[in-house]
Amino acid sequence: MKVTIYTDGSAKGNPGPGGYGTIISYIDSSGTEHLREYSGGYKLTTNNRMELLAAIVGLENLIRPCEVTLYSDSQYLVKAFNEGWLDGWIRKGWKRGKNDPVKNVDLWKRLLKAMEPHHVEFCWVKGHNGHPQNERCDTLATTAADQEDLPEDKMEE
Q: Helix H segments across 93-131?
């Protein structure tokens, strides 16, 4: 089955993120399109963690192995896979800078596990330029961020 996932983190915008949204789109055997929406939010986290969480939630909610195209406005997420950054960060243990440890290792590992049964392509959608795929997720993520009782995500030190 072919599935499209649209993700967005950083729903509240500046000065910091407040929620994330994921929309899973698929077409059934009769040709009807279906949408599944997932949203959530974290009060104490970073923009990059939010983007990873949005992608993870989309992939973890797929019931069976799929061909996935995942759209994100996060260069951090997309380049990690399309330009080989992840291979260095996680698999080879590269440092980001001279003494700077790799961040978000817990979420990168969770994302890799969520990807295992699927064939996933990552596509960058430049944010906030009226692109309909980006706008859909912005709306969903903002709704999530406006919820009052959001779980707290523990950031890596």
A: 105-115
pTM of the model: 0.80
What are the residue numbers of the active site?
A: 8-9, 51, 73, 128, 138
**Each residue's pLDDT tens digit, 131-141:** 667 777 777 66
Q: What is the pLDDT of residue 14?
A: 43
Residues 90-111: b if buried by 16+ CB within 10 A, e if exposed: beeeeeeeeeeeebbeebbebb
| Length of the chain, in residues | 157
User: Before 15, cis peptide (omega within 30)?
Assistant: yes
Short-list 3, 43, 36, 4, CA closest to 21? 36
Tokens of 4: 């499209």
